[in-house]
Write a structure and sequence with these properties.
Length: 611
């Protein structure tokens, strides 16, 4: 059926329509109370469309439509289809992330991590957590109290000894068969699942029964463990009960726009207090024909299609289909949800405050002002699903030319800032030829063996400049030191003529790389770490190569022994400067006779080069 025939046969029912281009790709998704009237309006030349709509109409080659029962169903379906297909001509919710959730992985010996992505991977997800720090505190409680593992290594019970986390009583060590049997770990995982499901009373009863069981059998150490667990779970249950009594449940939106760029800010208010904040950015809006009503309507419909629905939503302006969205959200929440666009009073003042923060976010995003390091590192922790806040990050890179002058560069970032006094450079000693994997293994092993011996702080995250081979080599070194609990992430080199990090690979999960969007503060931090590491390794390699060339060049001159070479190196710095020096300049370091020999040697070389 042709496009013209489809236009003639459109129903008058409510529904959703999908415009397609000549390649069959969906380029716009819309909803309508009357499909026939709405869709045909695009093709009526006297409608006075704006520039964006005129451009859309030029590209429409086909269309589909889906009939629904009412406008509410049309709104929900439209937002879901927009999220799925990401049509070019729709306003898309950028940087859309769920509130933090806790994820229990689908493994025989599961672990719990923080994530903002909910996937159909068989894992169990719990949340959302408001504020985001609550997710981190809960994860820390789980790891300390129930001692769930945090590492990415393969667990088969065959390791000869546990890592440092076991000795710090933060892991049951299921990797060592003699220390933790599978059923013991499964019991801990089952307890954590009850805790995350909010079944605190049921969990507390189970823990109390275990406490009395071990006490009666005179195993007082385990009895004390379950007594402490029982107290912790009861206390946490009281905190959750208080959180559920919240009366004030509001989301407040504000935005700041310049031309095609816009920053949208969301403040989440619970119990009358601001407990969370989220940011969204656009760079490709229609600056000339920006319609705030259309923008807010599309954004809110997409946002609340999957996220938590509060009882009140405050927006800076009224928008189309507000009453339809209210009905849809009321059905989802099961209670009356209201959307306000206050013009005065305290609610209007709160929107003004959110808009002020939106402007600050706009400046940081698009004018590259200094972002908040704590926030950037928290985002990095969530993106990489790290068990601990990455207060200290260390990064490695290897540099050589066909195996010669093989060196490693190590950089250290603390609280998001480079600590250059902690930067280190290593000469690779045990590897012959160009073997980056073995070189990485040596560098990582030597680095952390020394830190352990000197009892110095260990990092919470390690970056490796390289792919799966380098990551595996580094992981093997860490495992030999019982430090496999420290996450290792590979910085994958981008394609040629591309100045951005394409993605990250996490050890043990290389099939699911993490892709970064250029311009984000967290992207800039990772890029800075990568660039500093590469620079440190390259500069040291270049210095070693220059010293080798310097030594070999001077070796050809009679009378210049090792001691005199080092004198020249300290005072002139390079072979080029020595070659240009006069006899008078060389004499204080070599004596007149040897200085003359060095001078004549380089003069002879210069004449040969000029021929």
């Amino acid at each position: 059926m042709t496009l013209e025939e489809k236009l003639k046969n459109l129903p008058t029912s409510p529904g959703v329509y999908l415009h397609k281009n000549s390649d069959g790709k969906i380029i716009y998704v819309g909803k309508a109370k009357n499909l026939k009237n709405r869709v045909r309006s695009y093709f009526q030349s006297n409608r006075g469309h704006d520039r964006k709509t005129r451009e859309l109409v030029k590209r429409i080659a086909d269309l589909e439509f889906i009939v629904v029962d009412n406008e509410v169903e049309a709104l929900v379906l439209e937002s879901n289809l927009i999220k799925k297909h990401k049509p070019k001509f729709n306003v898309l919710l950028k940087d859309d992330k769920q509130y933090p959730h806790l994820k229990m992985t689908n493994e025989p010996l599961p672990k719990v991590v923080i994530t903002r992505k909910i996937l159909r991977d068989g894992a169990s997800y719990y949340g959302p957590f408001l504020p985001a720090s609550l997710a981190r505190r809960t994860l820390d409680l789980i790891n300390r109290t129930f001692q769930m593992r945090t590492c990415d290594i393969e667990i088969n019970g065959k390791l000869p000894r546990p890592c440092l986390e076991y000795h710090l009583k933060r892991c049951l060590a299921p990797c060592v068969k003699e220390l933790c049997k599978p059923d013991e770990y499964s019991q801990a995982a089952s307890d954590v699942k009850l805790l995350l499901e909010g079944k605190n009373k049921e969990l507390a009863n189970k823990l109390q029964l275990r406490m009395w069981h071990f006490a009666e059998n005179q195993n007082y150490e385990l009895a004390a463990k379950y007594r402490d667990l029982h107290k912790t779970v009861l206390a946490l249950g009281e905190q959750q009960k208080m959180a559920l009594t919240a009366e004030r449940d509001v989301d407040i939106f504000g935005f700041y726009r310049e031309a095609q760029r816009l920053a949208l800010q969301l403040f989440t208010m619970r119990e009358g207090k601001i407990v969370g904040r989220r940011e969204f950015f656009w760079e490709d809006l229609d600056g000339e024909n920006f319609d705030v009503s259309e923008f807010l309507g599309e954004v809110l419909a997409q946002y609340y299609s999957t996220d938590y629905v509060p009882l009140e939503i405050h927006v800076p302006a009224d928008f189309a289909d507000r009453d339809v969205l209210e009905k849809a959200l009321t059905e989802r929440r099961g209670r009356r949800v209201r959307i306000f666009d206050p013009k005065r009073g305290q609610k209007a003042e709160m929107i003004a405050l959110v808009e002020t923060n939106a402007k600050i976010a706009f400046e940081q995003r698009f004018r590259v002002l200094k972002p908040d390091s704590q926030k950037v590192l928290e985002e990095l922790q969530e993106i990489l699903e790290l068990p601990h806040f990455p207060e200290r990050i260390e990064s490695f890179d290897i540099s050589n030319i066909q195996g010669s002058e093989n060196v490693a560069g190590i950089v250290v970032f603390e609280n998001g800032k480079p600590n250059r006094s902690e930067y280190r450079r290593l000469i690779i000693k045990t590897v012959e030829g160009a073997n980056d994997f073995a070189s990485m293994n040596e560098a990582v092993f030597r680095r952390y063996k020394r830190l352990l011996n000197e009892e110095k702080p260990l990092p919470q995250l390690i970056f490796i400049d390289g792919g799966k081979g380098q990551i595996s080599a580094a992981a093997a070194a860490m495992q030999s030191l019982d430090l496999e609990m420290i996450p290792i992430v590979g910085l994958v080199k981008p394609p040629k003529h591309h100045n951005q990090i394409s993605h990250l690979l996490r050890f043990g999960n290389e099939e699911n790389p993490v892709y970064f969007e250029a311009g984000l503060p967290v992207f800039r931090l990772v890029q800075q770490i990568r660039d500093d590491t590469h620079k440190t390794a390259i500069e040291y390699h270049r210095k070693r190569r220059e010293m080798r060339d310097f030594t070999s060049e001077l070796t050809a001159i009679p009378g210049v022994a090792e001691k005199r070479k080092m004198k020249l190196l300290r005072n002139f710095g390079s072979i080029e400067r020595i070659a240009k020096a006069s006899i008078e300049e060389l004499s204080p370091f070599l004596g007149a006779k040897t200085a003359k020999m060095v001078y004549e040697h380089f003069q002879k070389q210069k004449k040969l080069a000029d021929k």
